[in-house]
Amino acid sequence: MLRLAFLALALTLPAAAFAQCGGSFADFKAGLKAEAVNMGIPAASADAFLSGVRQDPAVLRADQAQGVFQKPFIEFSRQLISSQRLNKGLQLAQQYDSTFDAIEATYGVDRTVLLAFWAFETDYGAFQGDFNTANALATLAHDCRRPDLFRPQVLAAMRLHSDGEFDPRTTTGAWAGEIGMVQMLPLDIIENGVDADGNGHIELKTSPVDALTSGGKMLQSLGWQPDQPWLQQVSVPTTMDWSQSGLDTVKPAADWQALGVTARSGALADLPASLILPQGHKGPAFLTYPNFSVYFEWNQSFTYVLTAAYFATRLGGADIYDAGNPDAGLDTAQMKQLQQTLRDRGYDVGKIDGILGAGTRSAVKAEQKRLGLPADAWPTPALLNQL
Questions:
Q1: 276-287: per-residue pLDDT in tens?
Q2: Which of 5, 220, 254, 324 is 20 to 30 Å from the Cα of 99, by its Cα?
Q3: Looking at the whole model, is its pTM more than 0.85?
């Protein structure tokens, strides 16, 4: 049986314990063993896990080459969403109807949300990744950029191994250590893994029932609220104060309606909402509701999150979004130039990576307001030239 107490123990260890990284990989593994034994993992089990673990340079290359998230929403969503993927999702919704009924009754997570993750993470289980998971996690934990994220995941994998739920030699998955059809990290499996098919094991790679149910439990644990929407396509008047857009502005849906925001289909939900314009005021527009924030606990990329949330609405019968006619955006080199320019002006844009993240959007909006431009947080070549 999985020991849920391990999660609480791992999260209460001193931060300094998670900061051990770099240096000799042999010394790094020795430190992992000592920490694992301190958590109650048998020394023999820790040795068996670590004996074959090695660094994988391909993992670091993959980590540093996430260019797909540099694509704007329209291009990214059209790349990921096809009629074939949509139809496959609808077919699987029927095939696993009883499983989704149970998930919705127990955890309150709509089937379309899980289907969208299943589609985007592994193409409904077809491509789950072929990186050795133990090696991937150890490599990322040893690398000193995010040891606080990955060191606990290595220790969680060691716990799973000790409990007979993880083989460090044969378990494979994504380069970042996620496992199974909906791609869950070891700590998530310890906390939220469910043996839904009742065979005595949590099999996220081979059992859709286990994988989907575990994903549903995980989303509930992250704060998903049952029977609430997450995203809705809207139309926005051209007289809108665009500076009110963005996830940092939250208003009752009735207030947005009073400003002229209307649903493209149905009615606005009676919930707090934010207006997002992923490619500026001339492109598509959406209202996001509280459940939308849960997506960011799964993935930090705004473009990925919006696309996954939108695809879930499409699986539920929503219309294709109106792409509008957005102004041209920046290529990767221009985006990096913009980020450096904004940093030089004192803005915190995070890493200079060519990705339009929250920090860059906030800085762009501030500069647009200063220059008297529509403050919609969408950077254009014209803005870059003015700066």
A1: 999 999 999 999
A2: 5
A3: yes
